[in-house]
Write a structure and sequence with these properties.
The complex is a heterodimer of chains A (317) and B (845).
Chain A (H helix, E strand, L loop, with lengths): L1 H28 L12 H10 L6 H15 L14 H36 L4 H15 L2 H15 L16 H34 L2 H8 L4 H27 L5 H6 L5 H11 L2 H29 L10
Chain B lengths: L1 H20 L2 H21 L4 E6 L20 H4 L4 E5 L20 E5 L7 E2 L1 H7 L14 E5 L14 H11 L22 H6 L3 E5 L8 E2 L5 E2 L6 E3 L13 H8 L9 H7 L6 E2 L2 H12 L16 E6 L10 E5 L2 E5 L6 H7 L8 H6 L23 E7 L3 E6 L12 E3 L6 E3 L5 E6 L3 H9 L5 E3 L5 H4 L5 E14 L3 H9 L8 E2 L6 H8 L4 H8 L4 E2 L9 E3 L4 E2 L4 H10 L10 H6 L6 H18 L14 E8 L4 H18 L8 E8 L4 H6 L5 E4 L12 H5 L16 E6 L2 E6 H8 L4 E3 L2 E3 L8 H17 L3 E13 L3 E3 L16 E3 L3 H10 L7
Classes of the chains: A mainly alpha (317), B alpha+beta (845).
Chain lengths: 317, 845
């Protein structure tokens, strides 16, 4: 298992480097944002690109880029959108908002999703199950920004119960901040609730019809005892890695939800950087998303071995 | 139990980490802001908060480096120019050209802000005392000025602003190491400070567009050609060149190769290219360039007349000490500016409405390790205001808050007041006590917040016009751009496109669109007002190629379109019989640009002409074209607006061509999304039409003429050569004939020689009436090419909150509706909250 994990980590680093190199070279090949013909600022832009090393061979540029990161954790300064500002600092300023909104969303939606799933599985083939399953399919089919607009219209505009936008400031755990996050949390959460409901219901339904469950009941366990002690544990082999993956991927944020609710997070920073052709910021956020994706996959794969001792990845036997 | 405890501890740890992450200084700033707000409220017992939204919040408002309009949001609030515009009123009367006092709030005037008085011309003195500034011997005025500074101006912390601050700020702005984006504003635009460019570029070599003919170049000893000023000339292979509108020849050759160029000698050029991307011009490289550009007919430059525009000359900049830059302290509260080209009157004051001032001690602290970039003016801590408001909180990408800067001189100087035309009372400017601005990107969110009273304004979208366009709270904001349909007239490229293997010439045709009769027919097919109201209701119909808001007389604010010459040219182009109308205004008002009967006749004429030339066929003899004239609409990206536009164009085209030989045989089709390449597609004739326009130079409509006659800018440069079209005008009672390019050059200050006589109709040289006549003449000739079919006059519409009102309802192109200084409140914040509650939490507009 240890060897397997180390192997996966090495592969992950290699993949990360390849993606980073590709992005870096492609970005550096792009011309600067076009200025109108005869714009006197053109010469300044050209001179800045020269000074920033844009005219050196791409691999030399990439080497300098890596050296700055390894020796100084220097990802450069923004050259357009936040001119002159350290991109790491900008990024770290945006991270808390993304994490906190998504963390609340996961904390709200996973227990609900699992609870609905269990309930539907236990009431299999009844109207309760049909209702939950149908709603689950409907909710999963609709993208979360649609909920965002509906929630904003109903709860903020018509009823006036919730604010339209996330509150400004950095008092992340104040009651006012939490209330202002509710529309975003709900918008992000519906899909997750539905996904966990469906997964839990499917796994639990299968486990509940297993022979060992019949054995457990014949041993004299009540239905509740058998479900909690045996069925749930087995169905969590699938559900728990999904929870871990969800927790890791929350760092990535939601690009559209952040835009709608004016959440100053990394998702919006990425979109703004792309729109403004601010390449240093784009490189950092791209590397970040790449790393998040790779780490999430790795954590999920490795977690199987811990959750179910029968699974031993990389074992020759 | 242990597990529960462990889980609880983990959650607590996460919570504490985030609590630790929260920005203490920001919290403190917000607390300070709140305290300041309370103090202000206590002082006048009411607060007036302007609640604003922007799609992208400012990120860098450093006057040396800001690049976008989003960044400029803060500048008018925390920074102040030397001079500013204010409305005319009883306190500041303005006279019109006939000496009559204008009605209040119908004009504007300049007043000193960071300056104490108007600039004083000291050209003679500075020329004598400072030969290093290079003021021409013949110059007697317009090259040097002293400006007395406002002695009451200070930073928000109370530190006085003196002449040293201006000089040191300029030194940092022009710093050759910093390469500041805004440095060129002070040497490459209208106000050019002497030696500023030399200081900023010291020790570098730049390549500038060659202005000499090939025959005027001479060969140096080393075999390289030099221009008439003795500067070495190069082929602009890997750098932008004039002929390609600043784009790079090498990119074109690499992309299109022998499709458009003769590449047989291309290697000679690439082999001699130096590290800067230019090729020394020798006999060998000139021959290679000539072969490359003129050797393939597809490129359309076989006569070689454009060769000089592929050349650049080298400008080697010697290092210059800052003492030689034309800005120095001439008193504790006085600076002197020496300019490298003359500037006076309105344009001088207009150039000085901005400011380069930075708080130098804070600026130096904000320099990054590389000493080339700075974080100055990017946060509360790195910002120091000297304007009416100061920044008290800022969250990047989220929100900012400004409150009154109690150290601003304008609160107590008695000058920042005006007389309200409605009640005759005098009020101070800037009633707003605080500004809250949030970044909101969704129009629907903006609208809902506006209707709940949480925002001051809402820009209408196309879906809102039916509901709100007649609201008393709706304001139209005219804009400069006039959108026209550019119609492809590049016959040679169209021939080639038809000759391509995949083109089915039995069902489609392109060449017919080059016929003047066809182009005229298209021009009168569309009702411009109906087009505007259908696809973009905030806009109105457009009829000329120069928009409605361009001001030709900055002193009076008169617009070009309101001049007699501009009205007459429209009447002439649209064949309006002016004798039938009481005056030109009525005649112009009658123009719709829509004449379906004439269009039908012209389509029939075009059909006969196209048949005769063999562009189309009518094999079955039914009198209807066998081919569909297919006009490709050049898209940068697909969107709903374009779909609506093209649907409308096709629908109306089908209506008008009904019963003509082109019945259902003219069709607009979407192109592939070309992105930023769309201009090249249009210019090269590879795509056929697009709705486009020019903007900028709001105070100088005369400069727009260059856009239609200079191939660097022309959309139709591929098929329209302005040097071959003559225009005869009566100037000072005498008829004068020049080609369009010459008229435009002379109009914009160049001396043009015709039949041995020099002509220059530049600003300050020729009478404004003469200049208007020339501009109108050029406009008329360009319209007659039917390369540009005017369609839309740009403008937008916005709702204004019931909490506030504009002092004037009349839009002024310079002052607009007065902006924040003149915004008055119907309700203070507390009253507004109560009013909204009274209305059930939702307002009706």
């Amino acid at each position: 298992m240890l060897k397997y994990s180390l192997q996966r980590i090495v592969y992950m680093v290699i993949v990360f480097m390849i993606i980073t190199c590709m992005c870096f070279v492609l970005i550096r090949m792009l011309p600067p944002a076009q200025l109108p013909a005869g714009d006197p600022h053109t010469i300044v832009i050209e001179a800045r690109r020269e000074a920033a090393g844009y005219n050196k061979p791409y691999m030399v540029q990439f080497g300098i880029f890596l050296k700055d990161i390894v020796t100084d954790f220097n990802w450069g300064v923004s050259d357009k959108l936040f001119f002159g500002q350290d991109v790491v600092k900008l990024f770290s300023q945006r991270m808390p908002a993304t994490v906190i909104v998504n963390l609340y969303s996961v904390l709200f939606s996973i227990p609900l999703g699992i609870a609905f799933g269990i309930f539907a599985a236990l009431k299999k083939n009844t109207w309760v199950d049909y209702t939950i399953s149908t709603l689950t399919m409907v909710v999963i089919s609709v993208p979360n920004f649609v909920y965002a607009f509906i929630i904003q219209y109903v709860f903020s505009y018509k009823l006036g119960w919730l604010p339209f936008l996330m509150k400004s400031g950095t008092d992340w755990f104040s009651p006012a901040m939490f209330v202002s996050m509710i529309p975003a949390i709900m918008s992000l959460g519906f899909g997750t609730v539905a996904a966990f409901t469906r997964t839990t219901r499917a796994e639990l339904t299968e486990v509940l019809t297993s022979e060992f469950m019949l054995l457990a009941r014949t041993k004299g366990l009540t239905k509740a005892q058998a479900t909690v002690r045996h069925a749930l544990r087995n169905c969590f082999v699938v559900v728990v890695p999904a929870i871990i993956g969800e927790f890791v991927s929350i760092l990535g944020g939601s690009l559209i939800i952040e835009k709608i609710f004016s959440i100053p997070g990394v998702g919006r920073l990425t979109i703004d950087a792309i729109n403004a052709q601010d390449y240093p910021i784009f490189m950092l956020t791209t590397c970040f998303y790449t790393a998040i994706g790779l780490v999430a996959n790795l954590v999920v794969d490795i977690s199987y071995g811990f959750i179910d001792p029968r699974i031993r990845m990389g074992s020759k036997k | 139990m242990k597990r529960t405890l462990a889980l609880l501890l983990a959650v607590l740890m996460v919570v504490s980490v985030f609590a630790g992450c929260s920005n203490k200084s920001n919290t403190e700033t917000t607390a300070a802001a709140t305290a300041a707000t309370e103090a202000t409220a206590a002082a006048d017992n009411a607060t007036y908060t302007y609640k604003d939204s922007v799609p992208l919040l400012a990120a860098n408002w450093n006057p040396h480096t800001y690049q976008t309009n989003d960044d400029a949001y803060l500048q008018t609030l925390i920074q102040v120019g030397f001079y500013t515009f204010i409305f005319n009123d009883e306190l500041n009367p303005v006279e019109d050209t006939e000496g009559n006092v204008k009605a209040p709030f119908t004009g504007y005037k300049f007043v000193p802000e960071m300056a104490a008085s108007e600039p004083v011309d000291v050209t003679e003195q500075v020329k004598k005392d400072h030969p290093e500034f290079g003021i021409p011997e013949s110059a007697t005025a317009g090259y040097a000025y002293t400006i007395d500074l406002n002695p009451n101006a200070c930073w928000e912390d109370g530190t006085p602003i003196t002449a040293d601050d201006y000089v040191e700020s300029m030194k940092r702005l022009l710093d050759p190491e910093m390469l500041n984006y805004r440095a060129s504003d002070y040497y490459a635009q209208s106000m050019c400070i002497a030696n500023a460019e030399s200081y900023a570029k010291g020790g570098t070599t730049t390549y500038e567009a060659n202005a000499d003919a090939i025959a005027d170049l001479t060969k140096g000893e080393d075999g390289q050609y030099v221009d008439t000023n003795g500067k070495k000339v190069y082929v602009a292979l890997g750098v932008g060149c004039e002929q390609l509108g600043g784009e790079v020849l090498k990119d074109y050759v690499d992309n299109y190769g022998d499709q458009y160029f003769d590449v047989s000698k291309y290697e000679t050029l690439t082999a001699n290219e130096n590290a800067d991307g230019v090729v020394p011009l020798t006999d060998e490289t000139l021959d290679a360039l000539t072969t490359l550009v003129t050797g393939n007919e597809a490129w359309g430059e076989t006569d070689g007349s454009t060769l000089p525009m592929y050349l650049v000359y080298a400008e080697e900049w010697a290092e210059v000490p800052f003492e030689n830059v034309g800005l120095y302290k001439s008193g504790d509260y006085q600076i002197t500016m020496a300019l490298s080209k003359s500037l006076a009157g309105f344009n001088l004051l207009y150039s000085l409405t901005s400011n380069w001032l930075v708080k130098t001690d804070l600026y130096d602290e904000c320099l990054n390790k590389d000493q080339k970039t700075s974080t100055y003016d990017t946060s509360v801590e790195t910002t120091c205001s000297y304007g009416p408001y100061k920044l008290v909180s800022f969250q990047s990408g989220k929100a900012l808050r400004l409150e009154k800067n109690e150290n601003w001189y304008g609160w107590n100087d008695g000058k920042h007041v005006y007389v309200d035309p409605t009640d005759g009372n005098t009020y101070p400017m800037y009633q707003t006590t605080a500004i809250d601005c949030q970044q909101i990107e969704e129009a629907s969110t903006n609208k809902m917040m506006f209707l709940k009273g949480e925002l001051m304004g809402y820009g209408l979208t196309a879906d809102d016009f039916a509901t709100y366009r007649n609201s008393e709270f709706c304001h139209r904001i005219p804009k400069e751009t006039l959108f026209f349909l550019i119609l492809n007239g590049n016959k040679s490229v169209l021939d080639e496109r038809e000759a391509a293997a995949d083109f089915d010439d039995t069902t489609k045709d392109l060449q017919t669109m080059t016929l003047t009769s066809f182009r005229k027919a298209v021009a009168v097919t569309y009702d411009k007002e109906l087009f505007a109201s259908t696809i973009s209701p905030a806009r109105s119909g457009g009829y000329g190629i120069i928009g409605n808001t361009y001001i030709y007389n900055p002193e009076t604010g008169d617009t070009y379109r309101s001049s007699e010459q501009a009205k007459q040219v429209l009447c002439d182009f649209y064949s309006v019989d002016t004798s039938k109308y009481a005056n030109l205004d009525e005649a112009v008002a009658s123009i719709t640009g829509y004449d379906p009967e004439a269009a039908k006749e012209l389509f029939t004429e075009a059909f006969n002409e196209a048949l005769e030339k063999g562009y189309i066929t009518d094999k079955d003899g039914d009198g209807v074209s066998d081919q569909v004239v297919t006009i490709e609409y050049c898209m940068s990206a697909d969107n709903d607006f374009l779909t609506k536009t093209i649907d409308y164009l096709n629908e109306k085209m089908n209506e008008v061509t009904k019963g003509t030989p082109f019945d259902g045989k003219v069709q607009f089709v979407k192109s592939a999304p070309y992105g930023n390449d769309w201009t090249n597609k249009i210019k090269s004739g590879l795509s056929d039409t697009v709705l486009a326009g020019w903007t900028g130079s709001k105070m100088n409509p005369f400069s727009l003429s260059d856009l239609y006659v200079n191939p660097v800018y022309q959309y139709d440069a591929g098929w329209f050569d302005a040097t071959t079209v003559d225009l005869t005008l009566t100037i000072d009672g005498k008829e004068l004939t020049m080609n369009l390019r010459q008229w435009s050059d002379a109009l914009n200050g160049s001396t043009v020689t015709v039949n041995g006589t020099d002509y220059n109709f530049g600003e300050g040289i020729a009478e404004v009436e003469t200049r208007l006549t020339i501009l109108a003449g050029i406009e008329g000739k360009v319209l007659q090419t039917y390369d540009y079919l005017p369609m839309l006059q740009d403008s937008s519409m916005a709702l204004l909150s019931q909490q506030v009102y504009y002092v004037t309802e009349d839009y002024n192109p310079v002052m607009e509706y007065g902006g924040l200084p003149y915004t008055r409140y119907n309700y203070n914040d507390a009253e507004w909250a109560a009013y909204i509650a009274e209305q059930g939490g939702q307002l009706t507009y």
